[in-house]
Design brief:
By secondary structure, the chain is mainly beta. It has one helix at residues 222-229; strands spanning 5-10, 16-22, 56-58, 78-80, 100-102, 122-124, 145-147, 167-169, 189-191, 211-214, 233-236. The strands form 2 sheets. Strands 3-4-5-6-7-8-9-10-11 form a 9-stranded parallel beta sheet, with helices on one face. Strands 1-2 form a two-stranded antiparallel sheet. The longest helix is centred in the last third of the chain and has 8 residues, at 222-229. The chain is elongated and about 55 Å long.
């Protein structure tokens, strides 16, 4: 089976800066050379060696069963695994430059520890229907967008310390309660559509809030009127 064609863009010294994958056949899924053995599924090599300058790793829409260790990718800024068939992820430890992590609509049931991803700005876990819990978000001081839309999550960890968060998408998850949102002083957009919550958490301290999407059942909640009086756009679903 033919692999995707990888175009590796280099720095002046010849080291890889980012990798763009051009699909030759949609059903293959590796940015690394793929090895196959008798009766085995496709798998990536044992390590991502010699790629310390790699900034973008694009593996969306691929059929890849495993990834090699990623610890050596110290310059990696974007990791896109959206709609891949991965069921597990290796440790993300050491990816201190990572800004975007896209795991949308994968088959993952758990996400590795996120602590230490101090540069992370976008975490997209939308559509992870088999994921019911999320690791601690503490220490994600640069996080601006968190999307769990359509995931199977039932409990949300503390959001304390996410002072850079601007967009929080929790629509159509299995959440029935929410943690305090009071420390999210930069929050501009909040999507709670389709949730089974019966009351809103306090939003009074969220001075940057511009738009909120809520379940229709909360239309008479006093907080909704208060939001509209503040000029916040409120949409009911």
């Amino acid at each position: 089976m033919r692999a995707r064609q990888a175009h590796v863009h280099t720095n002046g010294n010849g080291s890889p800066r980012f990798c763009v994958l051009v699909p030759r056949q949609k059903n293959l899924g590796a940015s690394f050379p793929v090895r196959e053995g008798p009766g085995s599924r496709r798998r990536a090599p044992r390590a991502a060696e010699g790629l310390t300058s790699l900034q973008t790793l694009e593996l969306s829409d691929t059929k890849l069963s495993t990834l090699p260790p990623l610890q050596g990718l110290t310059s990696l800024k974007t990791l896109n695994l959206a709609r891949s068939t991965l069921t597990t992820l290796p440790s993300l430890e050491g990816l201190t430059a990572l800004k975007i992590l896209d795991l949308t609509n994968t088959k993952l049931t758990t996400v590795p520890l996120l602590q230490g991803l101090t540069a992370l700005e976008t975490l997209d876990l939308s559509g992870l229907k088999n994921m019911t819990t999320l690791p601690s978000l503490q220490g994600l001081i640069a996080l601006q967008t968190l999307s769990l839309h359509g995931s199977g999550i039932t409990v949300l960890p503390s959001l304390e310390g996410l002072t850079a968060l601007k967009s929080l998408y929790l629509a159509y998850t299995n959440l029935t309660t929410l943690p305090s949102l009071q420390g999210l002083t930069a929050l501009e957009s909040l999507d709670l559509s389709g949730l089974k919550i019966t009351t809103l958490p306090s939003l009074q301290g969220l001075k940057a809030l511009r738009s909120v999407s809520l379940p229709e059942r909360l239309s008479n909640d006093p907080a909704v009127q208060e939001l509209r009086q503040r000029g916040v756009f409120v949409e009911l679903h």
